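Hello again, I could really use a second opinion on something today. I've been puzzling over a protein and I'd love to understand its fold better. I'm sending you its amino acid sequence along with the C-alpha cells. It would help a lot if you went through both lines with me. I've dropped the whole record in just underneath, so have a look.
***
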Amino acid sequence: MEYIAIGKIVNTHGLKGELKIESWSDFDEVRYAKGSTVYIDYQDELIPVHPVSYRVHKGYALVAFEGLQDINLVEKYKTCEILIADSDRQDLPEGEYYVDELIGLTVKDEEGNLIGTVIDVEETRGAQNNLRVEREGMKDALIPYVPEFITDIDDEEGVITVHVIEGLL
C-alpha cells in the first residue's frame, strides 16, 4: 500500500495528548474526523491512529488520538510525519492536481519544444505556486503555476504546455 505525508507533528499542546500538527493537506476536517485513520511514521513504523478531536489554533491543527490522550504517551511523536493511505486521497475537481501528480511531467512550449521536467512544486505564501523545471545543461526554471503560463496539462501524455514570454526562462 502507498502512503502520502499530510503533515508533521511539531509539538504537543496541553496535558491531554493533543498534538500540534503543521498540515500539508487542504482537507483537515476530513483527515481528522472521528472514525478516520491516519498513520504516525514513528521510527520507520507506521502506527495507525484514530482522531477523537480536531481543532485549529494559530494556524496549526490540534489533534488528539484514541488511546493517546496523555502528554506522556505522545511526546515521543514530536517531529514525526502524519500520513494517509493513498486510497484515502480526496478526488480533486477537474483541472486540479496534487503536487506528486505534477512532479515528473515533461514541460514543453506551445510549439512542442522541450523545456524540461518538473522536479518540484514550490509553494509561496500568498502568491502563486511555481513549477521548478529541471533543464538539461541549464539552471532550473521557475514557472508560475497560473493559467497565463500553464496552457494545458495532458495527464495521459504526461506533458505540461507552457506559454513562454520573454524573461520566463
